[in-house]
What we know:
The protein is α/β, with parallel strands linked by helices. Strand 22 (494-500), helix 13 (504-519) and strand 23 (524-530) form a beta-alpha-beta unit. It is elongated, with a radius of gyration of 35 Å. It starts with 12 loop residues before the first helix and ends with a strand.
Amino acid sequence: MPESKIKEKSWNQELEKEAYDKWKADNLYKFDKSSKKPVYSIDTPPPYVNTPVHIGQATTYCLMDMFARYKRMKGCNILFPLGLDRNGLPIEMAAEKKFNIKLTNTPREQYIEACRKVLEESSAASTDTFLQLGISFNSWELGNEIGDVYHTDSDAYRTLTQETFIDMWNKGLIYEDERINNYCPGCQTTLADAEVDYAEKASTFNDIIFTVKETGEKLTIGTTRPELVCTCGMVIFNPEDERYKHLEGKHAITPLFNKEVPIKSHPIAQIEKGTGLAMMCSAGDLSDIRFFREMGLTPTIAINRDGTMNEHAGFLKGLYVKDARKKIIEELKEKGLLVKQQQITHKTPICERSKHEIEFIAMKEYYVKQLDFKDKMRELANKVNFYAPESRKIMLDWIDAVSIDWPITRRRFYATEVPLWYCRKCHEAIVPPKGKYYKPWKEKAPVSKCPKCSSTEFVGDERVFDPWFDSSISPLYILKYSMDENFFEKNSPCSLRPQGKEIIRTWLYYTLLKCYLLTGKCIFNDAWINYHIVDEKGKKMSKSTGNVVDPQEVLKKFGAEPFRLWAAVEGNLERDDFRCSFERIEGAGKTIVKLWNVAKFISMFESASKPAKLNPLDEWILSELDRLVAVSNESYGNYNFHEPAIQLKHFIWETFASHYMELVKNRAYNQEGKCSKEEQDSALWTLHHCLETLLKLLAPIMPMLTYKLSMDLFGKDVHFEEFPVAGNHKAPFATEELLAFDSAVWKAKKDKALSLKAEVKKAVVPEVLKVIEKDLCSTHGLKQVEYGKEFGVEL
RNA sequence: GGGCCCAUGGUCUAGCGGUUAUGACGUCACCCUUACACGGUGAAUGUCCCCAGUUCGAUUCUGGGUGGGCCCACCA
């Protein structure tokens, strides 16, 4: 028997390591700036580095890699850099935990140092996981060349972030305003909505007495925040509420503070809630804030940033909110203005770290204008090709929901600094020139004299940017905006933004917005939106539930290739969440073994040159292959690997291995010399051609396996081969007819407990299969053949 | 409260106005047939969530319900 060229018994992780180590060592996927090929750029979602790579992330990165590899084989110059997002809260939280420090009790310099220490330890582990997954990033080294690994907290990246701020400032797109924010009195910092938790907390619902100015009528109003009576700006009732319709347009006098406020009807007042009357305070919660804005009321801010009440609160001044509440309740009781108290529990916003109750406090922050551009954003959202198209709706819904400009400043430490100084005397803002990374909290102002008042004393801004302000320039950064204008001009917009559905409203929206404001263009051609990998029960994976799967575990157990094949085959991430199941990943491994053995079999034979005339059986399998090639080209180009992967898998197992290989075997061996050299060559050439094509079709999905096989068997790096184009082989008969006949024969033998090699005395074969009579006879051992409509197998 | 999505054998899934409802995993039975026992051949398992409507006919379309998931908003 001939020897196979493949020595290894099966595919394994050691072979994977050989492949990715070599790619890394050879810098195989380095971005080639001098190439004339069209650039295809992928703006990868920079993953946070302080946690291990999440299995969902691993899956989506594998899918992105499939896109990259396909486009590479299609003749594109691939820009596929690895970015690591290292700014913001998660890093700070990790540092606080590790070093037992707090934002409030640690000098800024020292705090940043602690964050850096945390970062140093974490980056290597996560990038190594990507390497093991076989991702074809341009580079594994941090650097400033196109395609290099980048960190969002590097000087270069932060420089660009600050530059974009300066540009937008100069275009008049940024303004400062005092508005109400989530504020944690414990941490003394603004919080993003994402940092706010909710807890069921016991509270007291207090019914207190207001008086109608015009009539002297007493009004009972329920509130959980009596200490905010001093900030009451209006009393409202529902327009449908018969009890209060007569109050419309009258005025209420607040208890203790005796302030006159209008009474109006408003649909947000619920008839059944409390007494049906509500006092609207300036900052009880976010809805109050919106209400004040809507009604054109001027808010009265009564809470200081340290959580104490200020002069607006009169006799409560200086007290912490909680104490103020106690005191005013006593006072109201004493004056007979408190008629009822009721214990309730309600969801209260708390700080996810310190668990303090969130206050809503007005602070000066910078805002990026976005309300003026809602129409433009809709236009951009319609311009980008969404995969799947249904995802566009999430974006459009969000644009509709945008109601305030974008607050971009935060009072934190580990993020990009706001590059501004202020004149100590006249408070004029000093904007530095672009091109350098500024840390105003510890650096001197870039000017010596205030341009407005000539004062020489300045104070640096101590705030930092919202991390989305950084991450929303990633396509600009990877395309070297402002760093290599030629390259940027030539290669923008960015070809693809792959990302999760949950951050359409943040990352995708902010990126489109900011890049539009800066360049006036739509920054992406395509947006591929993925859903989630959930646990085997269909639940969202989260650290707190403890159902997170570490990709390292999968890599150790099964290796990257089964995982990648699983990711391609299993589900359609564009449409739905799909479940992570080890059983199924393991199942994908079987297909790899099958392919391995197919390759082993074929490699036992030397290939032959293509004969002038191919055997009909070979024509048939080639026509099947053509169909697969066509499907792959059509779907891969639309980021759909799911459909082709299923079909490829089916082809490998059924059509090719079970039927074609069985039928062609005898002709390939030609041990008894029963067929001509040409017939044998036709078999040998077709077998090799099918395998080679199959490896190309599978290369984007399983890069390491296909690389190894095509190196060993054909001496070529499959990833730099051209992706196949469908030929036009004509099948001499329908596939189903052949499959059905084979099965009938096998079943007949099986039913009689005969060996599959047993002779068939007489068979009735469909007419169309006459062209492959020879192959059928040798495979099934047919002694006599008749042709007719019904199968017949006589044993 | 608003929005979006989903519902098919034990599990996961394809599908479509008419099918003996697809396939996979698992289960069971038999078989080492010279690439492969990580294999082969076959079998069992389904009121295609419920109700109504459209239709000659609905798993497929429409409406309602139930259950599940996700996002957003809110709780004076």
